[in-house]
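Late entry, beta-D-glucopyranose complex.
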Amino acid sequence: MKTKKAICAILPFLFLSASILAQDDTQWNTKADSILSLMTLDEKVGQLNMLTGNWEATGPVLTDINKAESLKQGRIGSMLNVKGSKNTRELQSLALQSRLGIPVLFGQDVIHGYKTIFPIPLAQAASFDPEVIGRAARVSARESAVSGIHWVFSPMLDVSRDPRWGRVMEGPGEDPFLASAIAKAMIEGYQTPFDDGLSVMACAKHFAAYSGAIGGRDYNTVDVSLQTLHNLYLPPFKVAAECGIASFMSAFNEINGIPATAHPYIYNLLYKDWNFDGIVVSDWGAIREMVVHGYSKDRKQATEQAFNTGITIDMESNCYSNYLKELVEEGRVTEATLDRAVKQVLIWKMKLGLFDDPYKYCDEKREGEEILSAASRETARDVARKSIILLENKNAILPIVNMPRDIAVIGSLANSKRDMDGNWVSLSNESIAVTLLEALKQRYPASNITFIAGYSTSADDRSGFGEAIEAARKADLTLIALGETWNMSGEARSKGDINIPSIQQELATEIYEVTPHAVTLIMGGRPTIFNELSEKSPAILYCWWLGTEAGNAILDVVTGEYNPSARVPMSFPKHLGQIPVYYNHKNTGRPPVESDRNYSGRYIDMDHKPRYPFGFGLSYSEFEYTNFQTEVKPGRLVVSLNLTNTGLYDGAELVQVYVRKLWGPSTRPVKELKGFRQVFLKKGTSQSVQIEIPFSDLSYYEADGWSDAEGDYKVFIGRNATDIIFEAPLTLSGCKGL
Ligand code: BGC
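Prediction complete; structure with ligand written out below:
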């Protein structure tokens, strides 16, 4: 039994190593080994136990005696839902009272911002702009770090084809290539250390295939082929591992009969094929839920299965703290495996600098100075306007360059701060988001702005219709805000009906009848259905939940101060019955033929095509594509073209390159996005654009494993996945093994 006295004699050596950040991995290992050698079994298990601070609901967790005591006994290695320098400092001081004084890690769901709230991740994906997405992650990382947070539970990388699933709002949309680019940008944004030595760990979640939930119902069963797993769900996770992400989080779902939290296949890939050597945290309670799944006999077995498969930290199950020691003593978990897991946790604590200064992230003054800075808000506004998609602009009614005097603003969402933030923001923060109404009043103080809520988001109440229609009739411009309130998408917010509520659609269509000067702004956390609005609305901007700067960003786009550049990151269905509808489907032996009801793969009662396909989005300008060429160079395909802005406004065009492999040992999607670039052009100017596609990006998991790039292809340049401007045949040979 190690005595307190003996340990204290060694501790100064551990804490006085000021240059620890500069040390290489061997030195981290040596240090971690020296700490490990001092630890009891209980203390080791403690490092793998993560508990919530119940911060949102109950205030400082110090009132929770058990957790405070557990911290003092070294039985908690990490916590979530404890925020702010002051509170994390308080809890850290408890952990430091434990026998070895190992600091605790604080994690948090920083999904689209900490205090400065950015557009929801799906909206950010619509920007198709990894640089901008990376900047948002950077601000979030900084705000988190100065608030005592060491670990953000982001990026969420669940590629999804089902907009009924409420969590699509947190993810990168339907395409694995776009998702991979986003993964890289976010991880670099989060994890690159700041000049003053602060840095945060990122977490790729949810590993894996969580978004394949049958029927789009959260937590539901996932039954997926190996090909779909590798080609659709896993690519962004593989990129995350390649980028050196610090951690992964397991998914709640099962995959083909085995809970993802203990799925040998995916953890073999992660640890062996992808050489990941960071931390894997379970999702909240996911280890004990393996019993509910009907996979584990009891919690003890669940612990053994999860731990031996590769889950390093148990979030909020208490399974590791209750059973892991016993399992080691019984030899069902080896101490060597336990040590490896504990070492990972210790090493990350060292990398974050916590062994040098456990309070390094807890400086209240710095927190006060840096949070919600003007620069962060400016970034939020830029990301927000780059996330807004122009879906309709009949007769080019947008942009409104000269704002008229009489403006009607209709719809409660135009004046709801909380709804601008969307889901997955801290509930303890009172929203400071700028609404559309506030932004308008601020920018046009001399205008006559009439705001009428018009519809209710909670009741079937049409009593505001008359007033709203009257206001629209009188106004020179009507802005109609429709859509979802913040709690209609998100975790456990799956919906069977994703139509914009009919009461809202009715009001909007009545307004279109009295004025041609109506702009519809749709807010929400997922692609929604609104066919009548698409047909009748003079203009539609899809505004998602845009965060702190929502109102200002919307106005930037409405007025043309920013020319919209975002594109659909996830197909918008026309009908519920089409779901899942996505662009990268297979051809089948009998593809749908519009004119042929018999024996073609179409519906007899509705269109099979989406309302707005992947990659779709309008601009206030027009762009002409010429001189399309493909060239095969060593190790890569180079696609080039000339792009000219032929319209009246400066603006950015998203150049999209798709390929189709025509035949092979495994069928391939009709199109696969393999390259994209936002190109900004002043009106009347041209630029030559080159997009390189490494052969490795053409690889596909086929019936017998990964293919190389050899084969017959078509290469497409499109304005979106269905509007193709150029296509060319291509045969790649001599690139085996690449
Ligand atoms: C979610 C995770 C989240 C965790 C901690 C779970 O319910 O699935 O995404 O990180 O809670 O809040």
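The CA atoms of residues 142 and 194 lie 8 Å apart. Will revisit in the morning.
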